[in-house]
Amino acid sequence: MAHRLFTFVACSILLTGIGTAAESASERNERMKWWREARFGMFVHWGLYSGLAGEWEGRKVADKGNMEWLQSHKGLDTYSYAKAAIPKFVPKPGFAKEWARLAKQAGCQYVVFTTKHHEGFALHDSKLTDFDAGDILNRDLVKEIVDALRAEGLRVGFYHSLIDWHHPQYDFTKAQGLPYPKGGTALGTTPRDHERYLEFLHGQANELVSNYGKIDILWWDYSSTKFDGDTAWRATDLMNAVRAKQPGVIMNNRLFRRADAGKNTTGSGPYRMDPRYGDFGTAEQHVPATGLGKDADWEACMTLNTTWGYSKYDNAWKSPRKLIRNLVDIASKGGNYLLNIGPKADGSLTPETVSSFQAIGNWMEKNSDAIRGTTAADFKLEGVDGRITTKGKTHFLILFERPSSGAIKLPIAVKSAKLDGSSLNVKTEGTSSTIELPATLPDPDATVIRLD
């Protein structure tokens, strides 16, 4: 463990600056294969903010909104924030096993969790700072989580914040368009040496990709249009160095915020993404109306209520039906669903979190074949409240509501249609087919009909 605050190292072992060999299309497809097939993952936001639970000095901060941003919302300097938050953050033994079991039960194929959020507190035992779980809790929480996920056969993803409200050399004066607590600017010494912060950022990334075995995903967060890429983070060097240690890793696009790096969150206009800037796009808190294009790799990250980090005041829980239909909607557009949980400070989960993921798991236990390994169909449903997914020569018609006509016409020639193993009547004429439905759909959330 580190006992020197803000110790910096020149990370020669990180191989910074060494370019990676060009990747062929077949090599990329092989690397992305499991992620494209997964379609469903769990996101976890957990840190010091979890203990504050949406409250500051005994008062509610808000009913809704991102409570992992509480330090910024209240304009707190890092010392005041840490003094209040650290005593409340006491993870119980075995917390990570509960997360992993729930993710597995829900049908998730991977879990991405916060190794460090904007507050700057690292969940691993870092040698580069004492603002970490190793020094403060005498535990490596990253190792505990990784071990629990691997025990359940889940892929491992690290969320790591590029922003750092704790580090004394993170230059908030340069980071235009990115949040920084007002209390921090008042106490912060300027000018700052942002290069020293980048040594720290790259150094912690090196720890994460060196000390925990195979890492499947690195989820960076985040850049602005005024501060991104090589200028902000030495991003190309960082990506090359990570790939040198983890050649199979899949990275999102948030080291950059520019047109040819795809969209980070919301926006309009055509989607395009140069693979130099990352492997997949990140739609946040929404499902793009038509996805991000037939050949695009993308993921929608969304919350169970309105906050990523835990808040005891946010009760705007989405219904299990909404969550299941989100999963169907995203898969039908060729995307992955990264659904967030916000554990409490001790790592325990709210009853609403558990029941929501269990409901998805119950649906997936029966219907995962209609989600996992599927792609978007080449045609759209017209006048039907439902979605289509495709796997080879099989289509999955996933209905949310039964049409009043009791039948569905599709622009494809269907040989057979099965619902719960029973055949439905199909009339095919040329390249179109009409499927007769039963009087009642068996699943009020999403009924799956297999079309061959």
Structure summary:
The chain has 452 residues and is of the alpha/beta class. It has helices at residues 25-38, 48-52, 70-73, 78-85, 95-106, 133-137, 141-151, 182-187, 194-210, 229-233, 235-245, 320-332, 351-367; strands spanning 40-44, 55-56, 59-60, 110-116, 155-161, 217-221, 250-251, 281-284, 289-292, 298-302, 336-341, 375-376, 386-391, 394-399, 407-410, 417-419, 422-423, 426-429, 432-436, 447-451. The strands form four sheets. It has an eight-stranded parallel sheet with strand order 7-6-5-4-1-11-10-8, with helices on both faces. Strands 12-13-14-20-16-17 form a six-stranded antiparallel sheet.
Relevant terms:
452 residues; alpha/beta; globular; six-stranded antiparallel sheet; 20 strands; 28% helix
